[in-house]
Write a structure and sequence with these properties.
With about 110 residues, this protein is mainly beta. The chain is about 0% helix and about 55% strand. It has strands spanning about 5, 10-15, 20-25, 35-40, 45-50, 55-60, 70-75, 80-85, 90-100, 100, 105-110. Strands 2, 4, 5, 6, 9, 10 and 11 form a seven-stranded mixed sheet that branches. Strands 1-3-8-7 form a four-stranded antiparallel sheet, with no helix packed on it.
């Protein structure tokens, strides 16, 4: 059974940091890319970052370039999203996606 478990969200002040984790089961990171998406209240879901074992260059949305870093630990079958320099506009429910399956989402709230 494919499962993605996102965690690590929370409440931080502007400029703060959080690290999100996406623990994967049912497939390995060697075979499938993992993407992070987010959805703010009243807005559409948007892609934030993506990592793949077959591509050395992760994808980042322009809005997070230079502040967010995606990485993977294939031994733990877990993908991380290190978020630094957080802004109020980063407030959203963050989801991970892999092998056509979504995780349950973890809430990030950035206070001004």
């Amino acid at each position: 059974e494919v499962q993605l478990q996102a965690s690590g969200g929370g409440l931080v002040q502007t400029g703060g940091s959080l690290r999100l984790s996406c623990a994967v089961s049912g497939f390995t990171l060697d075979d499938f890319a993992i993407g992070w998406f987010r959805q703010a209240p009243g807005k559409e879901r948007e892609g934030v970052s993506c990592i793949s074992s077959s591509d050395p260059s992760p994808y980042y949305a322009d809005s997070v370039k230079g502040r967010f870093t995606i990485s993977s630990d294939n031994a733990k079958n877990t993908v991380y999203l290190q978020m630094n320099g957080l802004k109020p506009e980063d407030t959203a429910l963050y989801y991970c996606l892999g092998r056509w399956s979504w995780g349950q989402g973890t809430l990030v709230t950035v206070s001004s």
